[in-house]
């Protein structure tokens, strides 16, 4: 059967409901149609996907291609996050790649015309949902850092459609993305010592930072609350 099923997820606020990408190739005039109540941005993805497949060295099937985003009654299927899943569905359905374990993955990412993967918004809810589903998350390299903030989820980060295909067929495995704490804690040029005066406020910040206490700053605009808050991070211990 010339049919493929790919797992992905939509973005709806802090939720990431599952979306199954079903791709079917059938005889007939070359035509690509997307059904399942997609938003305008998804309907436009057909052109991106076609160019990405061709420019990655694959053949775009000269057949009737039907793509279903299930469930059909799920709202807010928007953005380019389904590009990667749609492209993989077409390649699997046309038997240009053979990926026996593809259902253990969830795919998300927008495709450039040359096949490169572009980042998308709403990564954190997607990573949380993928963790609950006990699947592997494949996404663009630029989204990996945010997704890795979710513990115990296996993340594979890629920069190109070809890299994803090579991993799925086993010719070049993508190593799981590992979060390094130094990449999260960014250096700052701000320093609490730069503040002149505000001795009581600075003392309160030092006590809160040393003891891990909660801190509430109250006062009229312009007294220095934001200035103090911006410099609080410079005296906090490194995260564990």
Task: Briefly say what this structure is.
With 240 residues, this protein is an alpha/beta fold. It has helices spanning 40-43, 45-55, 83-93, 123-133, 144-147, 161-169, 181-184, 199-211, 225-232, and strands at 3-9, 18-26, 31-35, 64-70, 105-107, 110-111, 117-118, 136-140, 155-158. It contains nine helices and nine strands.
List keywords for this structure.
single chain, 240 residues, alpha/beta, Ribosomal Protein S5, domain 2, four-stranded mixed sheet, three-stranded parallel sheet, 9 strands, 18% strand, elongated
Q: Compute the number of structural domains.
A: 2
Strand content: 15-25%
Trace the largest sheet across and list its strands: 1-2-4-3
Number of strands: 9
CATH topology of the largest domain: Ribosomal Protein S5, domain 2
Average pLDDT confidence is: 90
The CATH architecture of the largest domain would be 2-Layer Sandwich
Overall shape: it is elongated
Q: What is the H/E order?
A: EEEHHEHEEEHEHEHHHH
Largest sheet features: 4 strands, mixed
Gyration radius, rounded: 23 Å
- The assigned structural class equals alpha/beta
Task: Please report the number of helical segments.
Answer: 9
Q: What is the level 1 CATH name of the largest domain? A: Alpha Beta
Descriptive account of the structure:
With 240 residues, the protein is an alpha/beta fold. It has 2 domains: 3-182, 2-Layer Sandwich (Ribosomal Protein S5, domain 2); 187-235, no CATH class. It is 31% helix and 18% strand. It has 9 helices and 9 strands. Helix 2 packs across helix 3 (83-93). The chain is elongated. The termini are far apart.
């Amino acid at each position: 059967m010339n049919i493929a099923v790919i797992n992905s997820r939509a973005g709806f606020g802090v939720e990431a409901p599952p979306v199954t990408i079903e791709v079917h190739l059938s005889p007939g005039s070359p035509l690509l149609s997307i059904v399942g109540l997609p938003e305008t941005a998804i309907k436009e993805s057909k052109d991106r996907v076609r160019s990405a497949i061709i420019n990655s060295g694959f053949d775009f099937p000269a057949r009737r291609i039907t793509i279903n985003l299930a469930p059909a009654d799920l709202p807010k299927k928007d953005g380019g996050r389904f590009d990667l899943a749609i492209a993989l569905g077409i390649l699997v359905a046309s038997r240009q790649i053979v990926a026996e374990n593809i259902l253990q993955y969830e795919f998300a990412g927008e495709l450039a015309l040359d096949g490169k993967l572009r980042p998308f918004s709403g990564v954190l809810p997607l990573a949380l949902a993928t963790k609950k589903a006990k699947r592997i998350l494949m996404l663009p390299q630029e989204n990996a850092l945010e997704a890795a903030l979710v513990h115990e989820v296996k993340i594979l980060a890629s920069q190109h459609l070809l890299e994803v295909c090579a991993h799925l067929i086993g010719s070049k495995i993508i190593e799981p993305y590992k979060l390094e704490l130094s990449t999260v804690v960014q250096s700052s040029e701000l320093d609490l010592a730069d503040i002149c005066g505000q001795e009581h406020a600075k003392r309160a910040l030092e006590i809160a930072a040393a003891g891990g206490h909660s801190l509430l700053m109250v006062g009229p605009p312009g007294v220095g609350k934001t200035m103090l808050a911006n410099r609080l991070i410079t005296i906090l211990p490194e995260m564990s």
